[in-house]
Amino acid sequence: MIPAPFDYVAPSTVDDAVRALADAGEDAKVLAGGQSLLPVLRVRLAAPTKIIDLGKVAELRGVREEGDHLVIGSMTTHYDVQRDPLIAEHAALLARATDTVADPQVRHRGTFGGSIAHADPAGDLLAPALALDCEMVIRGMDGQRTVAAADFFEDFFTTSLAPDEILVEVRVPKHTGWHAHYEKFNRVAQAWSMVAVAATVRTDGDTIAEARVALTNMSSVPVRARGVEEALVGQPATAESIRAAAEHAAEGTNPTVDGNADVEYRQHLARVLTGRAISAAMAG
Amino acid sequence: MRITVTVDGTSYTDDVEPRTLLVHYLRERLGKVGTVVGCDTSNCGACTVHLDGHSVKSCSVLAVQAHGSEVTTIEGLARDGQLHPVQQAFHDNHALQCGFCTPGMIMQSIDLLSDNPDPDEHAVREGLEGNLCRCTGYQNIVKAVRDAAHHMRPGAGPEAERVTGADTGSRTASSVGGGGE
């Protein structure tokens, strides 16, 4: 299948990209890695009149340190996130979740920011971004603003990005030395998560000092498992305490029903996978 | 829109519609029909090529996005009538049944081996996760990739040395084992 016709521009700076987006009006679409957008265009689920390709905007690629944060350019590919030494050291949860995204070809093209801005509830990078309290740096014609992950994701495929705004960077508070694991449950290779759990834990000796846990595909947006986090803090890192904490995983969740699973089964998965995620994080 | 792309070592300049997919540009404009289209969903990986040294699904890249880039297809692997070691390994191990997935399987296998020159069975299966064989001929495909790794390892003997040729110092996916870049 072939996409419907569109005009195409490939600006080389963020300023030019923002201007092009503002000029193009509401029927424009930003192209990041294209690994979700192009399949959608191909089957004509969308037919934007103008595509603004960020592929030539060099300033949007790469990872840098800024004090107690990492700053990840929105056009940094999944492949680069998987291999970045700063992310491995300070935000291992992002690397582990990215390992599970789609397949190698898609990870070569697909981008961190594109995945976040696309906001597919089954996308694997939303829950880690929420768990790590990331901040989204957004640029539009009116300047730059920063939105917390908890406020950024609004609904299925819907974020607080205005039609004329671009996600330029993601600021990640450093979680240096934290254990991390992303436990994904799907039916077949390269399938989207039915449910997945992002867990990262800081230990103090044998005790869990802090925990961040978030769930993929348990609502229209990623969900923080606060009950699990609170139950873990101060506990010894034993199988028993992890199992007890994981019982809280489905609290307050509102998963969708589809051909793969109903609500009850997804909530069961959330509890089981949370236990596995925390155990694997501690073991890793 | 005018694009210039180097494909299998030859530079092409063409006017294309922005909506043209890279795979359609390769097949219909350049006649590189060795790269095939197997699905409409980006799942099958049959259209895998290398774009600037990394494997991509050419159904999920616009031709205009490849402007200024180098593309290697299955047709650019053999040198002077000599199959690439991964092609040879697929032949030797009967790693195909109908053969439709083979171009993509081989391109992705070369990419895998550039990241991991000695993958175990699990790593091969993970590395080929984005490529589907509807004949379910996976056993021999995995065997072929491991056989290719064996033949491509440093000091593996005359054949591997011949195809890698003079070391260019680059280790892009396609250059490993003498890809046509």
Automatic annotation (TrEMBL), chain A:
Keyword annotations from UniProtKB, A to Z: FAD, Flavoprotein, Oxidoreductase
SMART domains according to UniProt: CO_deh_flav_C (SM01092)
A Pfam entry, by short name: FAD_binding_5
InterPro entries tied to this protein: CO_DH_flav_C, CO_DH_flav_C_dom_sf, Diverse_Substr_Oxidored, FAD-bd_PCMH, FAD-bd_PCMH-like_sf, FAD-bd_PCMH_sub1, FAD-bd_PCMH_sub2, Mopterin_DH_FAD-bd
Residues of the FAD-binding PCMH-type domain: 1-177
SUPFAM superfamilies associated with the record: CO dehydrogenase flavoprotein C-terminal domain-like, FAD-binding/transporter-associated domain-like
PROSITE patterns with a match to the protein in the record: FAD_PCMH
Protein known as: Xanthine dehydrogenase family protein subunit M
UniProt source species: Prauserella endophytica
From TrEMBL, chain B:
PROSITE patterns registered for this protein in UniProt: 2FE2S_FER_2
Domain 2Fe-2S ferredoxin-type residue range list: 1-77
Region Disordered: start-end pairs: 151-181
Family annotation (Pfam families): Fer2, Fer2_2
SUPFAM superfamilies on file: 2Fe-2S ferredoxin-like (SSF54292), CO dehydrogenase ISP C-domain like (SSF47741)
Gene3D superfamilies: 3.10.20.30, [2Fe-2S]-binding domain
The keyword Iron-sulfur is annotated on this UniProt entry: yes
Organism: Prauserella endophytica
UniProt protein name: (2Fe-2S)-binding protein
Keywords noted in UniProt: 2Fe-2S, Iron, Iron-sulfur, Metal-binding, Oxidoreductase
